[in-house]
Design goal:
With 123 residues, this protein is an all-beta fold. Strands 2, 4, 5, 6, 9, 10 and 11 form a seven-stranded mixed β-sheet that branches. Strands 1-3-8-7 form a four-stranded antiparallel β-sheet, with no helix packed on it. The radius of gyration is 13 Å and the shape is globular. Helix content is 0%, strand content 50%. The termini are far apart. A hairpin with a 6-residue loop joins β5 and β6. The protein has no helices and eleven strands. The model has no long low-confidence stretch (mean pLDDT 95).
Length: 123
């Protein structure tokens, strides 16, 4: 059974950091593009970042560029999202998603989704 499990969310103050993890089971991530998404209350889900399968090329939404870093460790079958300089507007449920996509680019759609982890940034 293919499964993605996010962890690492929590409550932090503005300016602090968090690292989210997305652990895959039931498949290996080697040929899968991985995306991080978030959804705040009352807002649509938005793409935050993604990492390609073929060469690890990374992409970021403008709102997080320079603050967030996505990385993958294929040996651990895990993808990470390092989030620095967090702002209250980063508060959301964060989801990771995966799809088989052997490319330097990230796909428009993803087939597998995790259950999400809550990130709250508040003083």
């Amino acid at each position: 059974q293919l499964q993605l499990v996010e962890s690492g969310g929590g409550l932090v103050q503005p300016g602090e950091s968090l690292t989210l993890s997305c652990a895959a089971s039931g498949f290996t991530l080697d040929y899968y593009a991985i995306g991080w998404f978030r959804q705040a209350p009352g807002k649509e889900r938005e793409g935050v970042s993604c990492i390609s399968s073929s060469d690890g090329r990374t992409y970021y939404a403008d709102s997080v560029k320079g603050r967030f870093t996505i990385s993958r460790d294929n040996a651990k079958n895990t993808v990470y999202l390092q989030m620095n300089s967090l702002k209250p507007e980063d508060t959301a449920v964060y989801y990771c998603a995966a799809t088989y996509y052997n490319s330097i680019y990230c796909p428009r759609e993803y087939n597998y989704w995790g259950q999400g982890t809550q990130v709250t940034v508040s003083s």
